[in-house]
Amino acid sequence: MTDYLRSDVDEHSHIGVGKKGKVDTVTEIPGSFGKIPVVDLSNMGSPSIEERKAVAKAICDACTKVGFFYIKNHGVPQELVDGAFVEARRFFHELSEDQKMELVNSKNPNFYGYAPIRTDPMRSARHMKHLFESVNFGYEPQFDDAAVGTEDNGASFWPKEEDLPDFKKNLGKYYRSVIDLSRNLLRMFALGLDLDEDFFNQFYKRPATLLKMNHYPKSIPINGGGAKEAGIEAHTDLQGFTILAQEDVKSLEVLLKDGQWVDAEPVRGAFVVNIGDSIAMWTNDLFKSTLHRVVNREGRARYSIPFCFGPDFDAVMETLPSCATADRPAKYKTITAGEYHRMRLNLIYPKDD
Ligand SMILES: O=C(O)CCC(=O)C(=O)O
Ligand SMILES: [Fe+2]
Is 212 a pocket residue for ligand 1 (Cβ < 6 Å)? Predict the structure, then answer.
């Protein structure tokens, strides 16, 4: 059993915690779709259980075969999506470098905040190259219509109101709307896995949400000359699932069967959803956490807004009964989402950073 530190593109692997408690990889190759499926969510809130089940089945097919899918008719108004991109541009371009560095994530106990572009050749090989700039904000009950408590998941670094007026208020509208959509998707996952429709929501009372904004410039100058394409190396996401908003610049690529990288082209009005490692482990890899990467070859800047939705830190992720059989015994150790999260953050942000 290898003590893997990072997903390995050649093995189609994601990071899980094996029965012996070691970080291990899973080598299953994503299933039989040749492309990323599109799921229409129009009937997700239908009073008819049969109609809801049909949506749940389409989602679960996509999760078991690809781990990536588009959703349309998802209920998040386009003006909120467009508004969130306005705020992303304001953040990256209206704040000075110093103002952004005041919010740097290495100063935050939960690594919330700003992550600058890193081209330092001396960075240890254990780090992912960070050829983009990004910022993220954690869970706050004020953004959650279904909040049961008043505590956040650790304070985020928000820009000062005088530096970027109304930024938090404006982004908060989008935050609220994607949390709501995420809770509805959890119902579909549960239905599709033959669980009580509300099964997952009991583990998402103070969820590990992360609203991220990424900026991939059109190219990145390298010290000493030359330029590189902006992007993110092949990786899997760590949380339950991610809802990604993109504009019209194509750059996201997903690894499908036979080792083919396919573009997850932007589709106006649709989000891209992908399963993260936590739900993959919880479902005993029935749901696939699929490798993806970003390479901005388009010659213009790209912005994206991923929203990650992970279970409560104290949620105990024990292999779901409908996901283990005699032929397919449970592979993973029962672990709390928080323990797993912490383990992954320690890999992403090693102490020598
Ligand atoms: O920007 C994108 O399209 C995807 C970003 C991503 O994979 C991530 O932030 O984990
Ligand atoms: Fe990702």
Answer: yes
Whole domain around residue 76: which residue ranges? 2-348
For the chain, helix (H) and strand (E) counts, in that order, are 6, 18
Residue 353 lies in a domain: no
- The number of the ligand 1 atom at minimal distance from the alpha carbon of 212 is 9
Q: Which residue CA neighbors atom 10 of ligand 1 most closely?
A: 237
Residues 317, 278 contacting (CB under 8 angstroms): yes
CATH number at 83 reads 2.60.120.330
pLDDT by residue, tens only, the chain of 353 residues: 222 222 333 333 455 666 655 444 333 334 444 589 999 999 999 999 999 999 999 999 999 999 999 999 999 999 999 999 999 999 999 999 999 999 999 999 989 999 999 877 656 555 567 899 999 999 999 999 999 989 999 999 999 999 999 999 999 999 999 999 999 999 999 999 999 999 999 999 999 999 999 999 999 988 788 888 999 989 999 889 999 999 999 999 999 877 889 999 999 999 999 999 999 999 999 999 999 999 999 999 999 999 999 999 999 999 998 899 999 999 998 999 999 888 887 777 666 54
Q: Is 256 in the pocket of ligand 1 (CB under 6 A)?
A: no
Query: For the chain, what is the domain count?
Result: 1
CB distance 266 to ligand 1 below 6 Å: no
Q: Is 20 exposed, middle or buried (0-12, 13-18, 19+ CB in 10 A)?
A: exposed
Ligand 1 binding pocket includes 288 (Cβ within 6 Å): no
State the closest ligand 1 atom to the C-alpha of 304, by its place in the atom list counted from 1.
Answer: 1
Instruction: Give the ligand at the shortest distance from the Cα of 232.
Output: 1
